[in-house]
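sorry for the late reply, my laptop died twice this morning and i had to redo everyting from scratch. anyway the thing you sent over, i finally got around to it. pasting the sequence first so we're on the same page, its 129 residues, then the predicted structure underneath. double check i copied it right bc i was rushing
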Amino acid sequence: MTIHASWKADQGSSACALDNGTAHWAADLDTSAGGDPSLPNPHDLLDSALAACTTLTIQLYAKRKAYPIRSVAVSVAHVEEAGKYQLKRTIKIEGELEQPVLDDLLRVANRCPVHKSLSAQISIETSLA
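ok and here's the structure:
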C-alpha cells in the first residue's frame, strides 16, 4: 500500500491531504509553525502509528487467547534530542488478568508490526517523479 500526500498553494492553508487509495486524512505543521491545531503533525502521525498498532495487536491477540480484557489504552509520547528520537509508550489493560497474562500481553505489544519496523534499521530512498 502506498501513502500519498498532496498540497496546493491556492488551498489557503499549510495542511496536506493524505490517502492510501481508500482512506483519507490530513496533517499539518506544528501549531508553533502556524499549523492547524485540530490536525496532527507528522510526529503525531508517527507516534499514533505505534499507539494504534499496539492497541490493535493486543486486542487481536487477547481475543485469540480468550483473555478477559475489557479495554486497552495506549499512550505514546516522544522526546527528540540531537539525533535521537525516543518513543515512550504506556499501556493500560483492564480486565481480570493474572500477572502471567499481563506479561504475555506486554511481550506481544513489543512485537507489534510498527514496533518491529521502528526498532529495525530504516532506510529511505528518495527520487523525484
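The chain has two domains: 4-33, 42-119.
thats about all i looked at so far, will dig more tmrw
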